[in-house]
Design goal:
The chain is mainly beta. The chain folds into 2 domains: 129 residues, Galactose-binding domain-like (Jelly Rolls, Sandwich), CATH 2.60.120; 301 residues, Pectate Lyase C-like (3 Solenoid). Helix content is 4%, strand content 43%. It has 3 helices and 33 strands. Strands 9, 10, 12, 14, 16, 18, 19, 22, 25, 28 and 31 form an 11-stranded parallel β-sheet that branches. It is globular and about 70 Å long.
């Protein structure tokens, strides 16, 4: 079956709402007692939540981490949501498409008439998440519309959503703090902090001992100064950062080589892996770096990770991968090369978690596929340089929404696709550059983004970040990605 180029045009919607549109509040068709469908929330409905009545409202029992939802028995199309609050208690909120976890909008207040004009989407359920409020909020209206009037085709440029924090600041290759999702909820500091312990390891046995004997009440930094192999690792097949928090493993200069043995982060939070060279891992999980949830606030920065294309494609697994409920991860300034299966997030079509991963300023060279392969959740891929991609690049699947921004793709085949899953994924493409790119039809269940690459979703981000102009990306990434580029 011939591929289709997946092009869903984004509409430039008028802020005006016509009387005809207001006559068709799609939320009223949601199930439940509330006239706005809002009785699906976990809080209290004061009487029924009546349409066009600010005196009827849904109110949670708490003022943080609450949710009100509108749900339909089958997916509908929509492009506008109107929120109305009785009072002004809400101080932070976000609107989420429950079908794929995409954040549609966010803000610090709602007020008496918040009109959100969106790109047209399809959804069976919308969630209004009340992140924080000064007191238990009163949500009087959660209205949903498909506005078919006043829409015009946009100019062929990438969309910018007014709720999205603009890029800010200078790009710094050797930052002490991560950008992206790992910056959320207090950031990612690893083994730094009060009463921190630092040890230096020259063998794998010393790394294993430092992890096994650590004081769980004190942050730990392991500085690696030597070649680590299975032979000098005391019988372990991988290094488990497991059931512990606040750990860094950092290479010393150009001296830290994990040769044939990898690292797994499992049931751990606030972890940094930095300035390490990892290669030819064929033991343990057979990934150079594996993250398995529950795990959050992980920063993988300035590493060189590689295998070989001179072996069968299943001889090694991924260079860096994650599965289950992994969240708030940033992968930055890594040199990832010579790999068949490179970076997998979600190990099956049933691995349904809202993973949030940022990839920025990575150098992907001589790789076959999975750059990354992303199931479910949200990804942000910006300022990366891709070259010599043989099969597929970024593969968005199972409702994943990936913002792909100011990247350079050179000498690549199928740089952005949705292949091989039972449900498609989506992309929010902005400012990318394609050179010597080939688009090829392959599986019947797949779609390609090109050659006329257009966004088919919008992903708003909960953080600000520094963004390089696309024409500066290649030189900057080649100069700064990989090991021994900074003083750690």
């Amino acid at each position: 079956m011939q591929h289709k180029n997946l092009l869903f045009p984004l509409l430039a919607l008028s802020c005006a709402v016509s009387a005809a549109v207001h006559a068709n509040n799609l939320a009223i068709t949601g199930p439940g007692a509330g006239a706005d469908g809002s009785s699906k929330a976990s809080g209290i409905s004061y009487s029924d939540v009546r349409d066009n009545n600010l005196q009827s409202y849904w109110q949670p029992s708490s003022n943080s981490n609450q949710r009100v939802s509108v749900k339909w028995s089958s997916a509908i199309q929509l492009n506008q949501v109107v929120l109305k609050e009785s009072g002004s208690a809400v101080t932070s909120w976000r609107l989420v498409n429950n079908d794929n976890g995409a954040e549609l909008a966010s803000g610090s207040s709602i007020g008496s008439n918040k009109v959100l004009n969106l790109s047209t989407i399809s959804s069976k359920k919308l969630n209004l998440e009340i992140i924080s409020a000064s007191s238990a909020p009163r949500i009087a209206e959660f209205e949903v519309y498909l506005n078919t009037e006043g829409g015009t085709d946009p100019a062929p440029t990438d969309p910018v959503d007014p709720t999205d924090p603009p890029p800010t600041g200078e790009v710094t290759a050797c930052s002490t703090n991560p950008q992206g999702f790992a910056s959320l909820d207090g950031g990612t500091t690893g083994g730094a902090g009060a009463n921190a312990v630092t040890v230096t390891a020259t063998t794998g046995a010393e790394i294993q001992a430092a992890l096994a004997n650590r004081d769980l009440n004190r942050p730990l930094t392991i500085r690696v100064n030597g070649t680590i192999t299975t032979a000098n690792s005391g019988g372990v097949s991988k290094f488990d950062i497991k059931d512990m928090n606040n750990v860094s493993i950092i290479g010393v200069g150009n001296n830290a080589l994990f040769d044939g043995i990898g690292i797994k982060v499992f049931r751990a939070n606030n972890v940094i892996l930095r300035n390490l060279r990892l290669r030819y891992v064929n033991t343990g999980d057979k990934d150079a770096i594996t993250l398995e949830g529950p795990a959050s606030n992980i920063w993988i920065d300035h590493n060189e990770i590689y295998n070989s294309l001179d072996v069968g494609k299943d001889y090694y697994d991924e260079l860096v991968s994650g599965k289950k409920d992994v969240d708030k991860v940033t992968i930055s300034y890594n040199y990832l090369h010579d790999s068949w299966k490179t970076s997998l997030w979600g190990n099956s079509d049933s691995d349904n978690f809202n993973r949030r991963i940022t990839f920025h300023h990575n150098y992907w060279q001589r790789v076959n596929s999975r750059l990354p392969l992303f199931r479910f959740g949200q990804g942000h891929i910006y300022n990366n340089y891709y070259t010599e991609v043989q099969d597929t690049g970024i593969n968005s699947r199972m409702g994943a929404v990936i913002r792909i921004e100011n990247n350079v793709f050179e000498n690549t085949t199928n740089p952005i696709v949705s292949f091989y899953s039972s449900a498609l994924g989506y992309w929010d493409t902005r400012g990318n550059q394609f050179s010597n790119t080939s688009w090829q039809a392959m599986p019947s269940e797949g779609v390609i983004a090109g050659p006329n690459v257009q966004p088919n979703a919008v992903l708003n981000l909960p953080y600000s970040f520094a963004l390089l102009p696309t024409n500066e990306v290649k030189a900057h990434v080649i100069a700064n990605a990989g090991v021994n580029k900074c003083s750690f």
